[in-house]
């Protein structure tokens, strides 16, 4: 068996993703088709082995360029994904073989004692199991190899990225760097002019430009008009529309419509650049500038659009930051200037590549970084001003104030530290902090605007107040998901490579192993969906029982509620089991967890378990049901609900008392209405010693029998209870048809007793006490009161 296992492992080490599984079955029964498929498998295996070997050589070579490593890593990720899917090869077959082996029972300690037929069958099944497991083992080994190569490539790329980030080049603050930088700028202008002359010297290109000149001029004028006046025209159109739209619709309509302010200039520039590129005019630098023009226009238009909503000039827009009008105007100007600087830098950097003009080319981009840092610092001050001096009644609070505080401090620090680092020669570090910081503010502002749109949509659909919509659960959850979705975007902004994000997502999708099973995030999603469906079906069945079936039966209210509750618990358990089974989770893997939890249950959760079991007993035996009048632990009231852990009793003072179920099972409980509504009421009464006891008994008997709620079988009785300290004690004892009316019956009996006794001259005694002092001479004698002196006579 060991030799066979080693042979299979060596052979399947050279296969990928379970491709050899059909070939192994073919080896059991050789056929011409198997010989024809073998070369295909060998080609796939050879391709992977050759690629893996070449990848290891390139990764180990320090001269391999980063672009080549990125391409190599992408191919390795494709192979790894294939191997991950192949790890579950022959899964059903492996499960079946294990069940067959388990059916044979455990192998005896001495193989000779096992019957020959069973031993042969066990050996055959073990051999088949080994063959079935081999493709998955080989795929897992290849997966580990590909994953290791990917991690090595990522480590090298991260190290290079970090080295480039802290690399120091020519310092703009050093006057010695100005002359070389000026020379680079002059060379760039010369090259750009030379490209233009060469293109104009070409008759075909010159003719194409002259033929397209009228169209280009018209499109240029249209583009300028759309960029210059398009925003104002859209604002006027939106302002006119506002007067015709109800306020509840305005928050939903304004934001999407205003996006035309972004679309119009981008479309105009895109059409203009496309017409220019068709002429074929210009060289490499002109084409690079033309290709960068559309993205630069889009960024500029989007940035100014965001600024117009974060620092609105129109009063009808919702103010996100509590700033006075003059501060909002300053914010719009600062963001617009930053957008202009960013667009100019994008166009300039597209043609001024450091590969062609050397390290001093980056020095020419530093003025844009310096301006961006100054604008960023001032925007940080505006954010701080929104915190320390907001308009009256518009102050930020809570989480929003915390976020704005952190952003303002970070903006001011980066706005100063970034340009200073660039001035010292760390140009890449400066560029990699200032611009990402500003873009981060823009992304967060865009997220805030979309969140506001979500709140407005929710308020419109639910017809709720706008302030209440911001505190509702659904829009808050959607807004939270929106923030989570913005995290990968911010990671890309701050220099995280797309391949790294893909790696994190792949790791998230791969999941983790729980025993022999691999648990993936999609399994949890499938679990939630199936459990939700099962729970919904259970609720529907409970509703059908409660409203359609049980009302037609003769069961009491407690039995109906017990059946509905029991169905709910059974349905939840079945839904959970169905969800676990559908996701492929092995319940046997939870045995260890259950064993560990049993220790905690035995010590810390025993009260909860006790109440849980008591709740089950209450639902089955039903010693107490909903609607019963009970007394437990000195508390009287009506049972309003029985859950799996506790019972809710509503007292006659309309207070809800939560009683643990264990108290209802193990403690003493008085149920006044357990099996019927009848119950006895006792009314005590005292009469004077001079009263006729026979006459009193007859009057009380008549009063008791006259009550409508008192049953006459058995008849009420009047008991001469005894001789009290102040009078003769009697008791009326009667059975009521509904014990719930005991209070009103007692009240009516007492009223009639007072009326009849007054008419018959029967006295009702009250407590009187006579105090005798045995030694009055021992009491202190009070001093005689002295008269106050007479006032003096006047004059």
Descriptive report:
The chain has 795 residues and is α+β, with helices and mostly antiparallel strands. It has 28 helices and 10 strands. The strands form 3 sheets. A 5-stranded antiparallel sheet has the order 6-5-4-3-7. Strands 8-10-9 form a 3-stranded antiparallel sheet, covered by helices on one side. A two-stranded antiparallel ribbon has the order 1-2. Helix 8 packs antiparallel against helix 11 (260-278) and helix 13 (325-351) packs antiparallel against helix 16.
Secondary structure elements and pairings:
Blueprint: H1 2-12, H2 21-28, H3 32-60, H4 66-86, H5 91-103, H6 116-165, H7 178-201, H8 203-228, H9 230-242, H10 247-258, H11 260-278, H12 284-310, H13 325-351, H14 354-357, H15 360-363, H16 366-388, H17 398-423, H18 427-462, H19 466-469, H20 473-493, H21 498-510, E1 512-514, E2 517-519, H22 521-549, H23 557-582, H24 590-603, H25 606-621, E3 629-632, E4 635-642, E5 646-651, E6 656-660, H26 661-666, E7 669-671, E8 679-687, H27 693-705, E9 717-723, E10 728-736, H28 742-760
Antiparallel strand pairs: 1-2, 3-4, 3-7, 4-5, 5-6, 8-10, 9-10
